[in-house]
Amino acid sequence: MTASANRTPWIVLLPALLLTTMFFLLPLANMVRLSLITPDGLGLGNYFAFFEQAHQADALWRSLFLAVMATGISAVLAWPLAFFVAFCVAERRRYLMLLVLLAPFWTSFTIRAFSWQLVLSDNGVLAWMLSGLWGAPVSLGFLYTMAASVFGLTLFGTMLTTLTLFGALVSIDRRLIEASASLGAGPWAMFRDVIFPLARQGWLVGATLTFIICVGDYAVPTLLGGGLKPVLAQIMLSTVKGTYDLPTAATMAVILSGVVLITLLPLFLASRRRGMA
How far apart are CA 216 and CA 212, in angstroms? Predict the structure, then answer.
């Protein structure tokens, strides 16, 4: 292979590398720089101060709790949905069914959260329907709670994980499933030994993307959770809007980015394990 042939891939990738550097790496580096600025000069004082402030540390754990709960529930619910569309729906109707499942993605995330606020409020549609069935006023008491935030994030995460899992399921060679059945494998054995290992990568991708989006989300905890127990994204925004304390806000952003990078480790390790297999 000639030297010019070796340079060709890098020439093709150069525009993407430049855009990534300008709009991702440089802003990220600037954010890290801001987080290290203290009244005494550069240092880690902002990070120590973050964990010394109880409300900031609690907001971080609250963000993690919401993200873990929403991701876990979504990861479970995505399996029957994706499995049904991939294996139980006729191939000519498969993508139409998937389109119906993904219809919520057609509207803004914020608009969807606001619409659920109208449904779940004590004066909303659901309370009105239950009052009609019960014959007396019904107070749900669900809106502006942590459970409502988990509910809103789970709706989004389930659809996202279903989409990635569906892509992995339809790519499985059906002859492998037929071969396992001909060798006497039951439904559970076929799922455990054939379907799950081959679809695990798409499932992990969907779960990881769900966690990344949920841990930094602002709209759902604000509109459905009410902001009474703020998450880190809410405190970050209030810090910028209230005091314009960029070093403190940058510190929160770096910590949140670090959490996201840690969540990518299982996906990275699973990819390496599959590549080495």
Answer: 7
